[in-house]
Amino acid sequence: MKNSLLLIAVLLFITPQMVYSENPDLKERLRDHVSVLASDSLQGRGLGTAGAERARNYIVSMFEESGLKAFDDLGGDFFQPFRFRQNLAWIDAWNITGYIEGSDPLLKDEFIILGAHYDHLGYENRDDEQTIYPGADDNASGVAAIIELARYFSDNPQLLGRSIIIVTFDAEESGLIGSKHFVENSPVALSDIKLMFSFDMVGMYEANNGLELRGMGSMINGVEIAEAGAARHPLNLRRTGNNIERRTDTAPFGDNGIPAVHVFTGTKSPYHKPEDQYHLLDYEGMEKINEYMADLVSSFSLQNEILPSSTLAKSDAPALSSAGRSGVPAGLIINAGSGFHRYDDEFFRANSSFVSSIGFYLQIPIGSYFTLQQELLYDFNGSQMEEGIFRRHSVTLPLNIQLGTPRSLSIPVRFYTFAGPWFRYNFAGTHAGNTLDFELYNEQEWGYSLGFALEISMFTMGYTQRRALTGLYKDSQLNVFDSNGYFTLGYRF
Ligand SMILES: [Zn+2]
C-alpha cells in the first residue's frame, strides 16, 4: 500500500496532456494492482468470501481515486448488488461499475463498456493444507488494465467522444452470472451500448507472442480499425475474428446484438492453477496492451457510428431464437431399444425384441426450467411372441413436458426428466409372417412416456420408456399392452 501512496504523489505531477506512452509509471501501477488482487490475503477472490470483499474494497478505492462517476440509478456507490441461486444456496454478489462522460455533445449519450471479471476460484482446504488459486492472469490482470484505463480517460476526457462504462463483474467463473445480471439490469439503455470489451487474461503477452481481440469482426470495420491501431504501436495483434467469445463476459452482450470483443493474451497461461501467481505476469506486455487499448477505445469513441456486422446478426444473436440459444429449437431424434407385450393375465408372457423409431422434435421453452417437446416419429415396434415375431409400423406423436436444470446461454448443458402422453396410429404389421388384420388389432393407441436426458450443445442422449394404456386387441377381454424402452439420441439443427 505504501507503493500506491507514492504513486498518488507521482500522479499529481502528471499533466492531463501527457500521452500514455510517456507515462513511466504505468507498468508499476499495473504490477501494484495485480500484486494486491492476487495476494494470498485475498485468498483467490472466491465467490462470497472475505477475500472477494477485500478485492471489492480495493477496486472501489481505485475507482474513487481515478475520478470515476457512480450511477445514481444504482445508488451512487459503484456497487450493483445481486443474488443468484447456486445449487440450493442463495449467493450474494456484486458488480462494481462507474462511468466517464464523453466530450462530444451528441455521442456522449452512447456508451462503450470496458469490463473485467474480478472473481476467481478462491481456495481449497485439503489435508489441513490450504491451496490458494491466486488468479493473477485470470483475472487480476484484466481488472488492473481497466482500472488504469479508467484513470487515463478520467485524466483525458477530451479523448473520449462517447462515454465509457467501467465495470468489474462478479460470478464470472460461475457461468458469466455478473455480466448477465448487468445486461439484464443495465444502468443505461442497451440500445445505447455500442461496443463492449472484456479484458479477461491479459498478463501473458510474451508467452503467447501477442494479443488476441476475438470478436473484432462483430462490428463493421472493426478488424481494420484494430489493425490500423496495432500499426501505430509496438504491438503484435496475433488474432482477431468474427465470432463473439462465449467463455467470457462478452457473451451476454453479443446475445443482445452488441458487438463485443475478448481482449486476451492466450491460453499459454497457468490459469485455473495455484501457479497463476503475480510474479509470473508479463507487465511490460500489459503496459503495451493498455497503451494500445487506450488508443483503440479512443478511436471507437470518436467514430461517427459503431454498427454490428452481419456476422453478429447471424451467428451471435441467439436471443432472437425461441430456444434462447443458437439454432432453431428443432431437431432429429432416434430411439433404439427393446419392446415387448405386457399381459395383464400373467399366464402369458412375451419376450422382448428390437424396436426403434426415428423422427423430428420441436421444443417450446416455458421459463428457464420447463420445456414442452412435441415429437413426430415413424415407429417400428413389436414383441417376440410364442407364435413368432410380432411387428408393427406406426406413426407416434409423443408430447412431453421436460423439467430440467435452467437453460443458460453460456453453458450449453442441460439435464432434464420428462413425462407426457403419446398417441399412435398403427398402419401395417405382421405376426409370425402373416399380415396383421386390423379387424382384430387396434389402429389407434395411446399411453405415456417417462424418461430423462442430458443435452450438451446440439446433442441429446437419454432413456425413454413408452407404455401403452390401450390394448393391442380390439377384443377387450384380451388385455395385452405394448411397452418399449429406448436409448434416445437427438441432434438439434
Ligand atoms: Zn477469466
Could you please describe the fold and organization of this structure?
This protein is an alpha+beta fold and 493 residues long. The protein folds into 2 domains: 15-317, Zn peptidases (Aminopeptidase, 3-Layer(aba) Sandwich), CATH 3.40.630; 330-492, Porin (Beta Barrel), CATH 2.40.160.20. Helices cover 22% and strands 36% of the residues. The chain has helices at residues 2-11, 26-37, 50-66, 136-155, 177-184, 222-231, 250-254, 283-302, 310-315; strands spanning 79-86, 89-100, 111-117, 123-126, 129-132, 163-169, 193-199, 211-214, 237-239, 260-264, 330-343, 353-366, 370-385, 388-404, 413-431, 434-435, 444-456, 459-468, 480-492. It starts with a helix and ends with a strand. The relative contact order is 0.10.
Indicate the topology.
Elements: H1 2-11, H2 26-37, H3 50-66, E1 79-86, E2 89-100, E3 111-117, E4 123-126, E5 129-132, H4 136-155, E6 163-169, H5 177-184, E7 193-199, E8 211-214, H6 222-231, E9 237-239, H7 250-254, E10 260-264, H8 283-302, H9 310-315, E11 330-343, E12 353-366, E13 370-385, E14 388-404, E15 413-431, E16 434-435, E17 444-456, E18 459-468, E19 480-492
Parallel strand pairs: 3-6, 3-7, 7-10, 8-9
Antiparallel strand pairs: 1-2, 2-6, 4-5, 8-10, 11-12, 11-19, 12-13, 13-14, 14-15, 15-16, 15-17, 17-18, 18-19
Helix pairs in contact: 2-4, 2-8, 3-4, 4-8, 6-8
Bound molecules: zinc ion.
Structural class estimated from helices and strands = alpha+beta
For the record, what CATH class of the largest domain applies? Alpha Beta
Number of strands: 19
Based on the coordinates given, report the CATH architecture of the largest domain: 3-Layer(aba) Sandwich
Q: What is the N-to-C succession of helices and strands?
A: HHHEEEEEHEHEEHEHEHHEEEEEEEEE
Name the bound molecules. Answer: zinc ion
CATH superfamily of the largest domain: Zn peptidases
- Average predicted local confidence, pLDDT: 88
